[in-house]
Amino acid sequence: MGPVPQTVHTFDWPDRLVIGTVGRPGSRTFYLQVRAGTRLLSVALEKEQSAALVEKIDELLDELMDTEGNRFSVPERVPAELVDNDALDQPVEEQFRVGIMGLGWDPSTAQLVIEAVPAQPVDPQTLEPVGPEPEEALVVRIPVGAARAFAERTREVVAAGRPLCPRCGEPMDPDGHVCELPDDLR
């Protein structure tokens, strides 16, 4: 990554960190939302980014659990008191749309570190970023139990989209679906 962004929204041990959606299945917008006291910040991201983040969180937590002599007590299951199925906090105001996300581990505080920077326009020929470096970033630090709860909720949110067509496997809209399978496969 290039120069350090001018504004870094940092949340250490936030009161709440969730991914939720706004809109109907098929046209949902995904948000990563973090709250600490009265501070509330929401960033928009893609469904695929949400799913990839959870996959990486699970991998990291499982790796920590399997590490010989690991002094961090990583829960295998979500502690019941950390389950959060509530809707996003209102108002949902998009701070920025996420371009790149990073995930790390801070052994000094036994926390996962999630970083997100805004999407940048890219040159269609070279796929290199064009324009100025992002001016802001989001950094969230959460303990392992909260990370398990965040991952489980996010998996449920990602899976709660449109049902898949039993024939072609594509998502079906509430108002109908045109199956794109060739005639010989129907």
Overview of the structural elements:
- Strand 2 and strand 3 form a beta hairpin.
- The chain has helices spanning 47-66, 144-159; strands at residues 7-12, 16-22, 29-36, 39-45, 94-106, 111-118, 136-143.
- The protein contains two helices and seven strands, in the order ββββαβββα.
- The protein has 186 residues and is α/β, with parallel strands linked by helices.
- It has one domain (7-185).
- The protein is globular.
- The model has no long low-confidence stretch (mean pLDDT 84).
- It has a seven-stranded mixed beta sheet.
- Helix 1 (47-66) runs antiparallel to helix 2 (144-159).
> Total helix count?
2
Tally of distinct domains: 1
Assembly of the depicted chains:
single chain
Q: What string, H for helix and E for strand, traces the elements in order?
A: EEEEHEEEH
Distance between the termini: 48 Å
Broad shape: globular
Unreliable stretches: none
Helix content range: 10-25%
- How is the largest sheet built, in terms of strand order? 1-7-6-5-4-3-2
Please tell me how large the radius of gyration is: 19 Å
Coarse structural class: alpha/beta
Roughly what is the average pLDDT, rounded to an integer?
84
Strand count, sense and barrel status of the largest sheet are: 7 strands, mixed
Strand content: 25-35%
Number of strands: 7
Keywords: Coiled coil
InterPro entries: DUF3090 (IPR021441)
Protein name: Repeat protein (TIGR03847 family)
Organism: Georgenia satyanarayanai
